[in-house]
TrEMBL record:
PROSITE patterns: D_ALA_DEHYDRATASE (PS00169). It catalyses: 2 5-aminolevulinate = porphobilinogen + 2 H2O + H(+). It holds the Pfam family ALAD. It comes from Flavobacterium piscinae. One of its GO terms (cellular component) is cytosol. This is Delta-aminolevulinic acid dehydratase. GO terms for molecular function: porphobilinogen synthase activity; zinc ion binding.
């Protein structure tokens, strides 16, 4: 008999295709990244991220209410810190009345059941644009992890549900977990950027926060001494295993599309929830190609976010979250 099997039978029409569909997106798959700035009534479009904005606290409040209406109930908060508040140790990060701490309160006040994740890293606060303290041209691991632990407690104090260290220092998950336990924040979770690669896809994000490594003598030009080498796969398993042992509740792979082999492997290897970050450069590429009329924006967007879930992501941070949810609901 030929053909042995007619696989096309289950693709005959839209209804039957949806009957056998394996991967379905829902609003609860998404984490919405938010960029926050000082000021009032500020809504600044990020030039390399069309239709994505930095918001002041008053507009942040409006935004999270709108997200909640779309059933987008998890946000990941980043702040743009004015230059005069930046230094080598990211001192401002520990200010109990800093922009991040105020942002968390504004969000929790506006939408009490919104899950608030906070970025824990020094780079937006660092005068050198690095995720760690620099001494003699070197990013010093253990001084940095102590600061990240303090920063995490400060975010927990402000009301963060989950802290999200994005720095890639060694041992920071254990240090953060111990600090949270010591201070009584037993229910504050940790989303660990476990397999975060030194990627060229972060450029637009660094524009958004003005957080790129500075070009100065004795300052490393890139983040390759702490973020992972993209030639490696086993290293991602090792990093993830250690973060889980140290107390990570959720592990993350970053970026998304170019790293879906890693996502699947981590999903198959471990038993904790896996997150993916579809990063700024991935967003920018789709926006730019669509602007030129070279790609169908919505079709490519849906294909990529679905591929991320199909690869094994239990959740994803995506700048497309709102646009996707408007299409699927
Ligand atoms: C830095 C950080 C980066 C992103 C999230 N946290 C950039 C970097 O490592 O330089 C990138 C996110 C994106 O590109 O969307 N701690």
């Amino acid at each position: 008999m030929f053909p042995l099997r007619r696989n096309r039978r289950l693709r005959t029409n839209k209804t039957i295709r949806s009957l056998v569909r394996e991967t379905i997106l829902s609003p609860s798959d998404f984490i919405v990244p938010l960029f926050v700035v000082e000021g009032k009534n500020v809504k600044e479009e990020i030039p390399s991220m069309p239709n994505y904005f930095r918001l002041s606290l008053d507009l942040l409040e409006k935004e999270v209410k709108e997200l909640a209406k779309l059933n987008l109930k998890t946000v990941l908060v980043f702040v743009k810190v004015p230059d005069h508040l930046k230094d080598n140790k990211g001192t401002e990060a520990l200010n109990p009345n800093g922009l991040m701490q105020r942002a968390v309160k504004v969000i929790k006040n506006a939408v009490p059941d919104m899950i608030v994740m906070t970025d824990v890293a020094l780079d937006p606060y660092s005068s050198f644009g690095h995720d760690g303290v620099i001494e003699n041209g070197i990013i010093v691991n253990d001084i940095t992890t102590a600061l990240l632990a303090e920063m995490s407690c400060s975010h927990a104090e402000a009301g963060a549900d989950i802290v999200a260290p994005s720095d890639m220092m060694d041992g920071r998950i254990l240090e953060i977990r111990e600090a949270l336990e010591d201070e009584g924040y037993l229910n504050t979770g940790i989303l660990a950027y476990s397999a975060k690669y030194a990627s060229a896809h972060y450029g637009p994000f660094r524009d958004a926060l003005d957080s790129a490594p500075v070009d100065a003598q004795d300052i490393p030009k890139d983040k390759k001494t702490y973020q992972m080498d993209y030639h490696n796969r086993l290293e991602a398993i090792r990093e993830t295993r250690m973060d889980i042992e140290e107390g990570a509740d959720i592990v993350m792979v970053k970026p998304g599309i170019a790293y879906l082999d890693i996502v699947r492997e981590i999903k198959n290897t471990f038993d904790v929830p896996v997150a993916v970050y579809q990063v700024s450069g991935e967003y920018a590429m789709i926006k730019a190609a669509a602007e030129k009329g070279w790609l169908d924006h919505d079709a490519v967007m849906m294909e990529q976010v679905t591929a991320i879930k199909r690869a094994g992501a239990d959740m994803m941070a995506s700048y497309f979250a709102k646009e996707v949810v408007k299409i699927i609901s």
